[in-house]
């Protein structure tokens, strides 16, 4: 028997399989075919536009040899045969098929989507596969081997809108349809697997995909079971770790190449710069309001107020910056909008910023207009082809004590040296010199020195800074050796109190660390995989004690275990869990929260105790 072919649009949706299919076939045998099978004539040949499962059910009924039931009316007791399924006789054919052409159905794609999306309860991952098939449909399509199906070219964005998923999900579905093994695609279509997980598997070579799929749990018929989610968790974790490691390796190679490229320029050029522009501030009174004005401490740009004037003022000093460059621009709160405009006019694209949370003595406050100034901002801009950090190692906010007027802490220098050790660096309006950096500015001394806020009585006890780095034969700047272990704590002698009858307290190591040391310690830790956001792998710092408790509770809910009522209310209020009259379950937001946490509950508990 020659069976009818399926229109490509009909194949966008998965077929019904297993017991669900047999139940459908038996229902049709007993109660009749209530919805006709939609056929479309294309160049003299009929294709099924909608109703593939009903057609397959008729073929199955015919193969079993069972008679039609009472729902078939005058045809009750009839035995289906191959001729019945291709018969042109009326009215029998009208029991089975609704014939039509393109004009009868209008927009074929819209017709199929309407018939299936409204009738089926598909989750987002299942719809993403439909979008992926739709976006892939014309890839490699051979119109010379079969009648034209009147296919239209559909972009990923249009496919996403058509099935009501995000463009990101549609792109993931497209990758899965293109590259994943059929069993992986089928698992997503059955609702057993998230499309984001399937995308991770699809990115692996075919041999490794086969190994992964072969190790998954199956039922007696050899089909994948719902337990594949749990079985795949460690596999996906390992894949993400490998992606991070590979990304770091590629990033390190790019950073070295960029350093060599800039160092090879005929004139000395710099690929990373810090600028502390000499902003001029308005005063309440030119006669009485300038006592604490910046111009009393250093030269300010009183004649450069507009963005264009500031750019012109900086043009000569910025001539030493390479075409491929990263700029860290300090700005005060009132100058923020102006600084962003200047950054853009200087040819840089704003990407992010850092905030210096100023720690002052006692109850001291900064100056300000609307609010007192307790922070400063560092804009980060890029131009050309630069090497961004492989992963996020540093917080966007750092707390350091306030030093002398306009003096900045060394945190930005440390961040730059951590991420771009080989790229030449310069600091504009430097208040001090630092090993491995060129310094531009009237206040920059001849010798290298580190920041001293003036608040630490033991600044003189700090080890001397290392000698400036030297360049190796290949032109790469090698960091100078230091005697002190960079991981070790800096021991500060106890501050004696003359005349006190009490001995000085023994200060534990973690209290002797400055906030900058603590940040560097965290940055040196190996980052573990977090979650995929907008196509990029995001990581975060290790678990806090609160997150540990929430993680433990969510895992308990998933395992069907009881949790504390207070924690249950907290999780529900945060949108991480949902409660019905019968049970509490983890929401999609809760699963995303679990996915982004670093480490297991056991590891988190160890860190919380430490």
Task: Explain what the structure shows.
With 610 residues, the chain is α/β, with parallel strands linked by helices. The chain folds into three domains: 5-191, no CATH class; 267-281 and 296-485, Rossmann fold; 542-609, no CATH class. The protein is 38% helix and 14% strand. It is built from 22 helices and 17 strands. It has helices spanning 18-31, 52-64, 82-86, 92-96, 102-105, 108-117, 124-136, 156-163, 167-179, 182-189, 195-202, 206-214, 228-263, 307-318, 336-345, 411-419, 509-512, 515-524, 545-558, 565-573, 588-596, 601-609, and strands spanning 5-6, 37-42, 45-50, 97-98, 270-276, 321-331, 349-359, 375-383, 397-401, 425-428, 437-440, 470-471, 477-478, 531-533, 536-538, 577-579, 584-586. A seven-stranded mixed sheet has the order 9-7-8-6-5-10-11, with helices on both faces. β16 (577-579) and β17 form a beta hairpin. The radius of gyration is 34 Å and the shape is elongated. The N and C termini lie far apart (73 Å).
């Amino acid at each position: 028997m020659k069976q009818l072919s399926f229109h490509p649009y009909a194949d966008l949706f998965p077929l019904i399989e297993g017991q669900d299919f047999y139940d459908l076939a038996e229902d049709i045998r007993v109660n009749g075919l209530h919805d006709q099978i939609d056929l479309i004539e294309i160049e003299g040949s009929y294709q099924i536009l909608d109703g593939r499962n009903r057609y397959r059910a008729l073929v199955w009924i015919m193969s079993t040899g069972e008679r039609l039931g009472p729902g078939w009316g005058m045809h009750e007791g009839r035995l289906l045969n191959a001729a019945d399924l291709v018969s042109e006789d009326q009215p029998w054919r009208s029991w089975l098929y609704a014939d039509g052409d393109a004009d009868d159905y209008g927009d074929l794609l819209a017709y199929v989507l309407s018939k299936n999306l409204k009738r089926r309860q598909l989750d987002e991952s299942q719809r993403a596969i439909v979008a992926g098939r739709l976006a892939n449909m014309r890839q490699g399509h051979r119109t010379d081997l079969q009648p034209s199906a009147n296919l239209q070219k559909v972009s990923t964005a249009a496919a996403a809108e058509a099935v009501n998923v995000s463009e990101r999900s549609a792109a993931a579905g497209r990758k899965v349809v293109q590259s994943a093994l059929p069993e992986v695609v089928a698992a997503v279509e059955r609702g057993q697997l998230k499309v984001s997980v399937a995308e991770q598997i699809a990115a692996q070579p075919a041999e490794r995909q086969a190994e992964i799929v072969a190790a998954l749990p199956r039922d007696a018929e050899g089909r994948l079971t719902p337990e594949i989610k749990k079985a795949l968790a460690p596999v996906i974790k390992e894949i993400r770790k490998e992606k991070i490691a590979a990304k770091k390796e590629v990033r390190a190679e790019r950073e070295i190449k960029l350093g060599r490229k800039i160092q090879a320029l005929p004139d000395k050029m710099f690929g990373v710069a810090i600028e502390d522009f000499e902003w001029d501030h308005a005063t309440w009174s030119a006669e009485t309001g300038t006592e604490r004005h910046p111009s009393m401490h250093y030269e300010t740009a009183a004649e450069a107020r507009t963005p264009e004037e500031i750019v012109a003022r900086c043009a000569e000093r910025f001539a030493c910056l390479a075409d491929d460059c990263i700029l860290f621009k300090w700005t005060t709160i009132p100058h923020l909008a102006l600084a962003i405009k200047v950054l853009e006019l200087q040819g840089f694209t704003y990407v992010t910023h850092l905030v210096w949370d100023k720690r002052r003595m006692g109850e001291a406050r900064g100056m300000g207009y609307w609010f007192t100034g307790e922070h400063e901002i560092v804009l980060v801009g890029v131009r050309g082809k630069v090497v961004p950090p492989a992963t996020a190692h540093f917080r966007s906010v750092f707390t350091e004590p306030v030093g002398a007027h306009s003096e900045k802490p060394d945190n930005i220098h440390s961040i730059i040296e951590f991420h771009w050790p080989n790229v030449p660096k310069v600091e504009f309006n430097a208040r001090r010199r630092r090993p491995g950096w060129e310094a531009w500015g009237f206040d920059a001394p001849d010798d290298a020195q580190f920041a001293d806020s003036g608040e630490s009585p033991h600044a003189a006890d700090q080890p001397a800074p290392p000698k400036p780095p030297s360049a190796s034969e290949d032109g790469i700047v090698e960091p100078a050796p230091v005697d002190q272990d960079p991981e070790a704590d800096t021991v500060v002698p106890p501050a004696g109190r003359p005349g006190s009858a009490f001995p000085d307290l023994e200060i534990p190591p973690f209290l002797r660390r400055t906030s900058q040391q603590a940040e560097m310690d965290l940055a040196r830790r190996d980052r573990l995989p977090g979650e995929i956001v907008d196509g990029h792998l995001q990581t975060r710092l290790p678990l806090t004690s609160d997150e540990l408790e929430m993680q433990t509770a969510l895992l308990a809910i998933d395992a069907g275990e009881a949790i504390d009522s207070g924690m249950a209310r907290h999780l529900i209020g945060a949108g991480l869990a949902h409660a019905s009259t019968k049970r509490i379950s983890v929401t999609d937001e809760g699963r995303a929260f679990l996915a982004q946490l670093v480490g297991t509950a056991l590891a988190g508990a160890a860190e919380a105790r430490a």
